[in-house]
Amino acid sequence: MDLDLELSRATEAPPIYRQIAEGIRRQILSGDLTPGQRLPPERELAVHLNVNRSTVVSAYDELAAEGLVEGRVGSGTVVSRAGDDSARQGIAWNMLFAQAKGELSPWIRDILASGYRSDLITLAASEPAPELYPLAEVEGAAKFVLSQLGGDTLRYSPTEGTPRLREVIARRLTSRGANVDPENVIVTAGAEQGIDLLAQCFISAGDDVAIETPTYVGAIQAFQRRRARLVGIPVDEEGMRVDILERAIARRPIKLVFTIPSFSNPSGAVTSYERRNRLLEITSRHQIPLIEDNVYGDIYFETPPPPPLLVENSYDHVIHVDGVSKVLFAGLRVGWVVGPTPVIDQLALIKQYSDGFTGTFSQELVCRLTDNGILDRQAALVRASNKKRRDLLLEALRRHAGDRLSPNLPSGGAYLWCELSDGMKSRELLPYAS
Ligand SMILES: Cc1ncc(COP(=O)(O)O)c(C=O)c1O
């Protein structure tokens, strides 16, 4: 039997097994392949297409998971009736989605959803303790914003963010020693969107991106969605192992480096002054954009971390991501990216395709809560509260987990990194953790 399959081996093309599955899927849905019809044996099709047999097996598995084909003893893989039925019953959504289910993992979404359950204390997403929320001050700020600016706060604002908030962010960073103008700032729906836009801006399929291991799962997802090849650089108590980064750069061109230099999620690591300088030097020498995620930079328990990399950015290659989620509250969805103007312009062009306007009211609230000192006051409260919560959690872990978990002792941020004792796997533990 002849299957009409055209495969592309270009780097940006989907994986071959998905192209095979897609080609067969199309023929089943169009009726060119009919229920009961037998597909070529895996080995035969593999030879015909000049691919590994396992590639064809994966394609058939995907079609079987969608109910389009089934394996029958003695007659190989045959077109099932399911495609037929789903066509009659309504649209077969799973078959129309551009990304197969397996490519978009639901387990992180499920973990994050646990935050809304009243019967458990979630450790999944880091937010300030809700009892710290400055509700009266937010109410006051909302009244102020509405009385001062009226209906303008309820209108669309420019893609890059309101001029007022861009100015506030530039001023704050300048007061910390960075050289930032409002045009160097784009406001985003949280730091997470900032990272996603940066991934869209820089990554083509197959590009190498150096990240710390472990690192923030949202960044991993953003880079993976662009089909980056992730190059994990280990972290120790002084932060990213820049010696290993340098060796990685010598082996292959690295398109960008992503780092969380202050109280990293999840390791809690703080990159030392010396490592920061080397990181800046190596990346500038190789002309590699250096993205720093600074969302935990203000949450130190005793000693402030070294200044953000942006402050030492004499080569103009650092791109700084931050937001208010970790010190004020996460539900406002206000974050920002600070970088050279060509990068900010490019990010704005990309952003307008899916999110032309960031919420005006939330931006004005952040301006007001910054101007009247509430942001800084909250940062101080969160520092004390997170430290207390760290100590309580450590104590509970010691009491209940004994030597089965080895936690570290973060000096800031929101995460406690635990190593499991030998033989335990985190995936297996997950169902028992909620
Ligand atoms: C390192 C890091 N970056 C970014 C974010 C996302 O922040 P936002 O709420 O501003 O999108 C998080 C949230 O957990 C984080 O841990």
Largest sheet descriptor = 8 strands, mixed
Order of helices and strands: HHHEEHHHHHEHEHEEHEHEEEHHHEEH
- Oligomerization: single chain
- Helicity range: 40-55%
Estimated structural class: alpha/beta
Total number of strands: 12
Determine Rg (CA atoms, Å).
25 Å
Average of per-residue pLDDT values: 90
Cofactors and ligands? pyridoxal-5'-phosphate
Can you count the helices?
16
Distance between the termini: 50 Å
Q: What portion of residues belong to β-strands?
A: 5-15%
3D shape: globular
What does this protein look like?
The structure is a single chain. The model has no long low-confidence stretch (mean pLDDT 90). The strands form 3 sheets. The chain has an 8-stranded mixed sheet with strand order 3-10-9-8-7-4-5-6, sandwiched between helices. It is globular. The longest helix is centred in the last third of the chain and has 28 residues, at 374-401. The chain starts with 15 loop residues before the first helix and ends in a 5-residue tail after the last helix. Helix 1 crosses helix 3 (53-65), helix 2 packs across helix 3 and helix 9 packs parallel to helix 10. It contains 16 helices and 12 strands. With 434 residues, it is of the alpha/beta class. It binds pyridoxal-5'-phosphate (PLP). Pyridoxal-5'-phosphate binds at residues 125-126, 190-192, 216, 218, 260, 265, 293, 295, 323, 325, 330, 335. Pyridoxal-5'-phosphate binds next to helix 9.
